[in-house]
Design brief:
The protein is of the alpha/beta class. Helix 1 runs antiparallel to helix 4 and helix 3 packs across helix 8. The protein is built from eight helices and six strands. Helices cover 38% and strands 14% of the residues. The protein is globular and about 45 Å long. A six-stranded mixed sheet has the order 1-3-2-4-6-5. The protein has one domain: Uracil-DNA glycosylase-like domain (Uracil-DNA Glycosylase, subunit E), CATH 3.40.470.10. It binds iron/sulfur cluster. Iron/sulfur cluster binds next to helix 4.
């Protein structure tokens, strides 16, 4: 059922010309993961060069690094996650998608989330965070990552956690206790414990986050 609904959305997406990115894309990058088993939707920023060429999200260098982090956390990319981006077509030179492009593509994103109906959402990087949890300019992903956030998508409430984007982790190799890589490993461990373990913990918004570090 989910697969059939998603195929309808995919076919509309693949012929979409609602924003300027349609002119420069090689492929629409719709999703990756198993809709039947995925409990969590992971939302990134936009397809990069390798994603544009293959039509699959998170397969370039950043995607390979994300795979390592997921594997170390015991999260299965194939079974636990449904991976998408805020826009389905690659912005030229990997620039950040514009507000207009994100708005034009939002209907596909909303439909995918609604169909998957995930237990939680991972907002991977600042662009995804801002799209679903608007904040003032001073509030960065460094301040919000690792916390359970309440977000609303098309009238439905979800728990969400922001994590650093793997392309940011590619630029910072530090493994110090407060480094982005260490914090990301902790965030993924919390997500695993909360929603992907046999003994899921109950998320209490008022309780101190067990891995709150920043
Ligand atoms: S980015 Fe989204 S809205 Fe823009 S052309 Fe691609 S599918 Fe359509």
């Amino acid at each position: 059922m989910k697969k059939n609904c998603l195929e309808i959305v995919r076919s509309k997406c693949e012929s979409c010309k609602a924003c300027a990115l349609a002119k420069t894309r090689t492929n629409v990058v719709f999703s990756d993961g198993n809709p039947s088993t995925a409990k969590i939707v992971l939302i990134g920023e936009a397809p990069g060069e390798t994603e544009d060429l293959t039509g699959v999200p998170f397969v370039g260098r950043a995607g390979q690094l994300l795979n390592e982090f997921l594997e170390n956390a015991g999260i299965s990319r194939e079974d636990d996650l449904y991976m998408i981006n805020t826009v389905k077509c690659r912005p030229p030179e990997n620039r950040v998608p514009t507000d207009e492009e994100k708005a034009a593509c939002r209907k596909f994103l909303n439909a995918q989330i609604d169909i998957i109906n995930p237990k939680a959402i991972i907002l991977c990087g600042a662009t995804a965070l801002k799209e679903f949890y608007p904040t003032d300019k001073k509030t960065t992903i460094s301040k919000l990552r690792g916390q359970w956030l309440d977000i609303n998508v098309d009238g439905k409430d979800y728990k969400a956690m922001a994590i650093f984007h793997p392309s940011y982790l590619l630029r910072d190799h530090s493994l110090k206790e407060t480094s982005p890589r260490t914090l990301t490993a902790r965030d993924l461990a919390e997500i695993k414990a909360a929603y992907l373990s046999d003994n899921e913990i109950v998320i209490d918004q008022n309780a101190e986050n067990i891995f709150a570090c920043v």
